[in-house]
Design brief:
Radius of gyration: 52 Å
CATH topology of the largest domain: Helix Hairpins
Strand content: 35-45%
Number of helices: 7
Number of strands: 22
Order of helices and strands: EEHEEEEEEHHEEEEEHEEEEEHHHEEEE
Distance between the termini: 72 Å
Number of domains: 4
Length: about 450
């Protein structure tokens, strides 16, 4: 067979086997060129693809497994108050003429704090003294008359003994009843003296009440009166000063504790565990105290029942002042030198399934969750113990190459920052994933 190419008028005959050979060579050249171009393109794009993959790879935040103390505590707020607050008032009325004490002043027992105008009370004392002198003089007058009546009666008796005709019975009755009358008048006069003495003592006491004095040693924490102000004590005793004795020895913190935590607080008091607290005035200082009293007078606010707990704390530097707000931490239980994980590791959950190993993805699907439909009261003791043990099981995540690996642990005591590890394939200084870094 022959193929002819060219013009019809100048035909040349070429063998047919030559054309396929030329086409194959051209195809091979094109194929080699395309392979070279693809190889160069792949070589050029490979760093870019690697960089893009590295940029999309999650960058995990991690925290270490440590050994140390795990403290379980109950948090509460409270108010700092003095152990004893003495309110000083005025028993008498009148204008304040002098003030001798001011805020924060230390006073001793018997020190003068203020003076109520004493002029009216001085006049009352002078009046009652004069009245007493009058009553005493009246006693002397009546006593003289009584003595005279007694002697007259004695003379009449002596004369009648000599001769009954000298004194008639009627006259004897007159002497006798006169003596008895003056005897009664003397008793009345003496009673009037006692009454005048009592009135004088009242006036002197009222005069003494014009001097407002401190009943105890302490610090003036409040002053409710100004010089020149008039007191009206007829209906209610006005409060002038508030003193707090021995504030440097001990202060009280009145905490409000929820009823759900009250049992733990009672147990902490029985075990003598300390209480830590801070105040806003000294945020870098930690104060320590002990539970002194758990009061039984509950308070209900919006269906929440709370109980007052009194914490006693020393105050040698007088940093704790009345009215400060305290943030308390009641130590209920603790473990020392135990393996612990940060609570953030327990809260972490991988956001995507493809970030987790294939064998751990069932955890994300919830296949290992416990059936909670059965009420606990229907379970046996063993079943309840098993359910409690399973509830203490948690998962933490560690990096295993490009994926995350789940590690099952058994937790114990839980604090605000760390949780005790009772069982689990963890060691100290292991790195646990707690989240992705910002900007991922």
């Amino acid at each position: 067979m022959r193929l002819c190419f060219g013009r019809m008028e100048d035909l040349r005959c070429i063998p047919a086997c030559i054309c396929p050979s030329l086409a194959m060579k051209r195809f091979l050249k094109w194929l080699v060129g395309a392979a070279i171009v693809c190889g160069l393109a792949f070589a050029a794009c490979r760093p870019i693809v690697g960089k893009f993959s590295a940029a999309n790879k999650p960058d995990w935040r991690t925290a270490q497994v440590t050994k140390g103390r795990v403290l379980f505590d109950v948090r509460a707020t409270g108010e700092v108050k003095p152990v004893l607050k003495v309110s000083i008032g005025s028993f008498v009325s009148g204008p304040i003429t002098e003030l001798y004490a001011d805020f924060n002043q230390e006073v001793k027992k018997g020190d003068m704090l203020a003076l109520v105008d004493p002029r009216l009370f001085l006049a009352a004392v002078a009046r009652d003294e004069a009245s007493l002198e009058t009553r005493r003089a009246d006693v002397q007058r009546v006593n003289a008359l009584y003595q005279q009546a007694v002697r007259n009666e004695q003379r009449a008796v002596a004369l009648r003994e000599q001769n009954e005709d000298f004194i008639s019975p009627r006259e004897m009755d007159g002497f006798c009843f006169e003596r008895m009358s003056f005897e009664a008048q003397l008793k009345v006069a003496k009673a009037a003296v006692k009454q005048a003495e009592a009135a004088l003592q009242t006036s002197e006491a009222n005069l003494g009440y014009t001097e407002i004095r401190s009943p105890v040693d302490g610090v003036v924490i409040n002053r409710l009166i100004e010089e020149g102000q008039t007191l009206a004590a007829q209906f209610q005793m006005p409060e002038l000063f508030q003193l707090a004795p021995d504030m440097e020895k001990k202060m009280h913190v009145f905490a409000t504790v929820d009823e759900a935590d009250l049992g733990r607080i009672i147990k902490a008091k029985q075990n003598g565990l300390p209480v830590e607290f801070t105040v806003s005035a000294y945020p870098d200082d930690t104060f320590y105290g002990e539970i002194e009293q758990i009061r039984k007078n509950s308070t209900t606010t919006e269906n929440v029942v709370t109980y007052p707990v009194v914490v006693a704390a020393p105050n040698p530097d007088l940093k704790l002042l009345p009215g400060m707000t305290a943030n308390l931490s009641f130590q209920v239980d603790e473990r020392k030198d135990v393996l612990r994980v940060p609570n953030s590791a327990l809260r972490f959950y991988p956001p995507k399934r493809n970030q987790v190993r294939e064998e751990d993805r069932k955890i994300l699907d919830g296949e290992e969750e416990e059936d909670e439909d059965v009420e606990e009261r229907h379970l046996t003791d063993e079943e309840q113990a098993e359910r409690k043990r399973k509830r203490a099981e948690r998962y933490v995540w560690v990096q295993d190459g490009e994926f995350l690996k789940a590690v099952k642990i058994q937790i114990g005591l839980v604090s605000w920052k760390h949780t005790e590890v009772v069982e689990g394939d963890l060691e100290e200084d292991d790195e646990l994933v707690i989240g992705e870094k910002a900007g991922q």
